[in-house]
Write a structure and sequence with these properties.
Order of helices and strands: EEEHEEEHEH
Helix content: 25-40%
CATH class: Alpha Beta
Oligomer: single chain
Number of domains: 1
Shape: globular
CATH architecture: 2-Layer Sandwich
Strand order of the largest sheet: 3-2-1-4-7
Number of helices: 3
Radius of gyration: 15 Å
CATH topology: Nucleotidyltransferase, domain 5
Distance between the termini: 42 Å
């Protein structure tokens, strides 16, 4: 029996639903959840933190958290700027708030960029020299 690979709590945030999974570096999913997105800023941060805890209890530990978020971000400090479907999260220091709450490293990326990377890594664009990813929502 081989050693277990480290897992990451990965999030796809939408204005309607939050989807999350505990995933290893081979793309294997140990646990997953989907629920309506809480739209007020304090409740939203609490929802992500709670989801990380539930994923960890259902599928093992996580070494980090990755969040794909809709709308413009300031990657340097992990701030959500002007999300079109979550207006109460405007100028939200999401990375810092989650790191303070969870004591885990948090990585924030625009959801369309995260989708393109996922397709290149394990999906339809795997092995491609170049690809285009269109997201609609």
């Amino acid at each position: 029996m081989g050693k277990e690979k480290p897992r990451v709590a990965a999030f796809d945030i939408g204005g309607t639903n939050l989807r999350a999974a505990l995933v290893d570096s081979a793309g294997r999913i140990a646990a997953r959840l989907r629920e309506p997105t809480v739209t007020d800023r304090r409740g939203f941060v609490g929802q992500i933190a709670s989801a990380v805890r539930r994923l960890r209890s259902g599928g093992g530990g996580a070494v980090a958290v990755g969040v794909g978020f809709p709308g413009p971000l300031r990657i340097e400090d992990g701030a959500v700027l002007t999300p079109p479907n979550l207006p109460d999260c405007r100028n939200l220091p999401l990375k810092k708030m989650l790191e303070d709450e969870l004591r885990l490293p948090v990585f924030l990326e625009n959801d369309a960029n995260a989708a393109a990377l996922g397709e290149w890594w394990l999906g339809a664009a795997r092995g491609a020299r170049s690809a285009v990813c269109l997201t609609l929502g």
